[in-house]
Amino acid sequence: MKIGELAGRTGLNASAIRYYEQVGLLAAPHRASGQRRYADDAVHRVRLICFASEMGFTLGEIKIFLGGLRDDAPVGPRWKKLAERKIVEVKRTIERSVRLKSLLEHLLRCHCASLAICVERLSLSENLKRIRSGKVVKGKI
Amino acid sequence: MKIGELAGRTGLNASAIRYYEQVGLLAAPHRASGQRRYADDAVHRVRLICFASEMGFTLGEIKIFLGGLRDDAPVGPRWKKLAERKIVEVKRTIERSVRLKSLLEHLLRCHCASLAICVERLSLSENLKRIRSGKVVKGKI
DNA sequence: CTAGAAGTTCAAGCTGACTTTAGGTCAAGC
DNA sequence: GCTTGACCTAAAGTCAGCTTGAACTTCTAG
C-alpha cells in the first residue's frame, strides 16, 4: 500500500503520516524505488494512534507508550498509569466545563445592568479563583 | 498605578498586559515620562478579560465584544449571541470528555489481551466516528 | 511516449497567547 | 552620585501538530 492509500483509509493526510514517521510514532516502512510501501497492519497502527490522539494524549505520550509496544501486546501498566493521569485531567475538564456552561447560561438569562455587575453577582471572582487554583491549562483537555 | 502593580493585582504578567494593549484588548493608558499609568478601574477591566478568557473565549472574540464596550454597559445581544455559540461548544466538550473518561476507565479495568482487542471490544471505532463527526477540534474547549 | 497524478525531501509557515531577549531609559533608596 | 530594580520597545522564540512550498522523481493511463 502506498502512502496515499494509507492516508485514504485512515482519514489522515499523507503529510501527517510522514510527520508521524518523522517524530517516531510510525516505523519507517520498506520502500520500493524510494516510495513508502505499507503492510496492511499499518492501517491498524495508524488508527490506534488516531484513537489515542482523540483521547487527548499528546503525540509525545503516544510515542512513549507505543515505543516498542506492538499492537497485539497486552494493555500494560504504563498505559494504565497514563490512563489514570488522564482521567484526573478529564475530570477537571468536565467540572470546569459544567461550571462554564452554567455561567454562560446565566449570561443568557440575566438582566444585570452591566457585565461588571453580572460578574459580581455570580461571585465569579470566586469561581475564577477556583478555576485558576485548579491549574487547568487553558483550552487543554 | 504602574504596570507592575496592575500585574500583581490581576495575577498577570506585565508582558501579558502590554500584549493585551498591543492586540487592542486594553486601551493605551496615559503615561508619565514614558511609563504607563493605569487608573484603578483598569484592574477591573483586566479581570473581565481574564474572566472571559477563562470562559474559553479567544482574545479575538473578547476584543470584538469589548470593542467600544465599557465595563458598565449592559450585557448586550452580542455577548449573548457569543455565549450561545459557546454553550454549544462547551456541551460538546462535556459529552466528549464524559465518553473519554469512561473509555479510560475501561482501559484501567479491562483484561483484554491487547490494546487492539480492547479497542475493538469497546467498538471504539464507532465512538471515534462519532467523536470525529462532531468536528470537535482536538483539545479545544 | 508523454502528461499529469502521486510520490520524495527539506525547510519554513501557521495558530494563539504569550514569554523572552536585547538594548536601552527611568525612578527610588542610600 | 550610584546602584538596583522596574520600566520601555521591537523582534524573535515557544508549544503542538501539522500544512505548505519548492524543486525534484516516479508511477500510471491513454
Question: What does the model show?
Answer:
Two copies of one chain form a homodimer. The first copy, chain A, is mainly alpha-helical and 141 residues long. Chain A has two domains: 3-66, Multidrug-efflux Transporter Regulator, Chain: A, Domain 2, CATH 1.10.1660.10; 78-133, no CATH class. Chain A contains seven helices and two strands, in the order ααββααααα. In chain A, strands 1-2 form a two-stranded antiparallel sheet. The longest helix of chain A is centred in the middle third of the chain and has 33 residues, at 77-109. Chain A is elongated, with a radius of gyration of 22 Å. Chains A and B meet through α3, α5, α6 and α7 of A and α3, α5, α6 and α7 of B. Chain A binds a DNA duplex (30 and 30 nucleotides) through residues 2-4, 13-16, 18-19, 23, 33-36, 53, 58-60, 138-139.
Question: What is this entry, summarized?
Answer:
The structure is a homodimer. Chain A has helices at about 5-10, 15-20, 40-55, 60-65, 75-110, 115-120, 125-135; strands at about 30, 35.
